[in-house]
């Protein structure tokens, strides 16, 4: 069945291999723009993105024909190739083989965009490990671990 209207917001977090801080500030915007283009070319819409030295946050409204894993794989493979082809980091660049994808309600889109856009300030107060632990605790609180 075709879906005429959709509301599929996903907050992705990609992490560099071994969480190494290899995304340089001088290349951050170029990487962000490239990922934005990948999203757009796959019939999706990117609301916010921020590339930290060792991880990237972005909020996407997905096409109903595109599941999270497929979109994440396309973005990871294409951006990894772009970063390496353009020598945007020292050595060979790789993403970790896994990423996180969190669903976001329409009511929270602005809040999540603000969170992503304020990553630099946020990480002056909290490490990636602390941030990620809080994300998992918040997003996974509805899972019943007894089952």
Protein architecture, described:
The protein starts with 8 loop residues before the first strand and ends in an 8-residue tail after the last helix. The chain contains 5 helices and 4 strands, in the order E-H-E-E-H-E-H-H-H. The protein has one domain (9-139): Alpha-Beta Plaits. By secondary structure, it is an alpha+beta fold. It has helices spanning 25-41, 68-85, 109-117, 119-122, 128-139; strands at 9-15, 45-51, 55-61, 100-104.
Task: Give a short synopsis of this structure.
This protein is of the alpha+beta class and 147 residues long. 41% of the residues lie in helices and 18% in strands.
Shape: globular
Beta fraction of the residues? 15-25%
CATH homologous superfamily assignment: Transposase IS200-like
Radius of gyration: 15 Å
Low-confidence stretches: none
Number of strands: 4
Largest pleated sheet = 4 strands, antiparallel
Number of helices: 5
Number of structural domains: 1
Q: What is the CATH first-level class name?
A: Alpha Beta
- The helicity comes to 40-55%
Say what the CATH topology is. Answer: Alpha-Beta Plaits
Write the element-wise H/E pattern from the N-terminal end onward. Answer: EHEEHEHHH
The main sheet orders its strands as 2-3-1-4
**Architecture (CATH level 2) name:** 2-Layer Sandwich
Structural class category: alpha+beta
Determine the mean pLDDT: 90
Distance between the termini: 32 Å
């Amino acid at each position: 069945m075709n879906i005429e209207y959709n509301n599929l917001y996903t907050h992705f977090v990609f992490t560099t291999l071994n969480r190494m801080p290899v995304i340089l500030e001088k290349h951050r915007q170029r990487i962000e723009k490239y990922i934005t283009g990948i999203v757009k070319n796959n019939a999706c819409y990117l609301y916010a993105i921020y590339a930290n030295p060792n991880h990237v946050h972005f909020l996407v409204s997905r096409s109903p024909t595109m599941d999270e894993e497929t979109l994440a794989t396309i973005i990871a493979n294409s951006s990894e190739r772009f970063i390496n082809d353009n020598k945007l980091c020292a050595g060979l660049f790789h993403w970790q083989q896994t990423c996180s994808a969190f669903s976001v309600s329409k009511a929270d889109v602005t809040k999540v965009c603000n969170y992503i856009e304020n990553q630099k300030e946020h990480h002056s107060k909290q490490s990636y490990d602390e941030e990620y632990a809080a994300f998992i605790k918040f997003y996974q609180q509805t899972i019943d671990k007894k089952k």
